[in-house]
What does this fold into?
Amino acid sequence: MSVFWKSFPAMLIVLALVAFLFWPGAACALPVAPAQSLTVNIESISGVAPQTKEELSRFYALRDFHPVWDLSDEETLKKAGGFIDSLDQLATWHGLDKEVYRLDDMRGLLASTAQPDKQKLEFMITASLLHLAHDLHGDDLNLDALYPGWDFHRKAADIPALLNAAITSGTMNDFFQQIAPQQTAYRALAAALQRYSEIEAKSGWPTVASGATLLPQDRGVRVAQLRARLAAEGYVAVPAEGQGDFFDDALEEALIDYQNHNGLLPDGHAGAETLAAVNVPVAQRILQIRANMERWRHMTEEFPPDRYVMVNIPDFTVTIRENGVEVYTGRVVDGRTDRPTPFVDSRILNMVINPAWHVPLSIARKDILPKLRKNPYYLEKLGAVIVGRDDDPAGTTIDWKDVSPKGFTYRLRQDPGDMNSLGQLKFNFYSPFGVYMHGTPHQELFGKATRDFSSGCVRLAEPTRVGEILLEDNKENGGWDQQRISDAIDAGNTRTVTLASPISVYFLYWSVFFDSDGKINFRKDIYGYDSSLMNKVKN
It folds into this structure.
């Protein structure tokens, strides 16, 4: 176990809970103003979006347009400064962009004694709280437009009414605690963000110079660089001065630990892919943590349920949980970067044994037509036929060189068999993208660390085991264990088995997550979803 993780994972959840129960603002409450009428029209406030002005109007209407904050004298203004600082800390804890809350503008107004500036500060403080609450609730970004298939949303919340109620009852700390995601994973990410921000504040971590693969028993400057890099993240102890340039057993063990937690082949060798990963700047890791926190802020409060199947796209894994307990984790192949696997929120309804593959027209045009132009007998090799072309099912009399992609309108079907691209089992659920989970004849792909090879569907390494778990409640005729599924496959007939208990299925994108031991894992942002999201947040 690494040095860093001896102390960090055990305390990570505890620290996250403490921070949520006692968010920075709890230490500095801002006095509520005495009742009096506001004299500045909200519409006159500059630099505020129309939607924010509308919410301010709604909020103050609930208070008969009386002010909220006591900004009457030097003492209360001092408390207001502390309150603004606490908002700064709260935004930092949640990985939010502090600039959007105009905290520095509010600090500037604290020095003014002019009544119009005090009333402007009144509105700005309230606007910042409304904005912050919306951000914590995942309201200010539309991920549907950013991610294909995204359909995850928290329940609508009347933020102005909830904020007003919290101020009236003196429970604003509880309000911000409760409006943020309650999932343990989110809290763990928030705690990890602080840890990696501390590393960044100490000038980050060193890089390892390019060169040949570093192997156990090697010695040299680059070995010392590798040791220093892993030590900065806590995977290995910091060596005594002048004793870190030898690739010893401790460094090999630390490197394998790092590789396991970064989705790399755990061979203990620092090759090109491992060196690329260790040289990712800490700022990029912080961006990834923030991006994953943002996606969590949009997940429904009920996620995850006690029973589900989840594919983590950048981790290339599928996990099944029953009654809140993980019962299976296996490898998957998912979509290429130019044909990404979409997000999915659905329910698996049935399993098809010995499925036929009805080739999507887009795949036929992009993948199969070029091969037919080179080999007019390719459909025979593939075990596929042209539907409705009984006199020439393999299309051997067609001059494929004269067929353009747009002119390719043939419907292709690959019959069940050893060459079938779906393997021998297919799991159906609704998706507007027409994706599903299935087996594959290409088992060799599961030996690779990065497995983005499909056209969007998810290929399972162990489909019969997945089928056995999902059909556990199908008790007829002795139930469906792996042996019965294998026997049904061997029979050669296509058969659809409806799940007695349909199960939720999710395709999600967690590039930063925690394993069962509480250790942080990073994965490559294969689709660029982390960077595109943070660019959206920034802009």
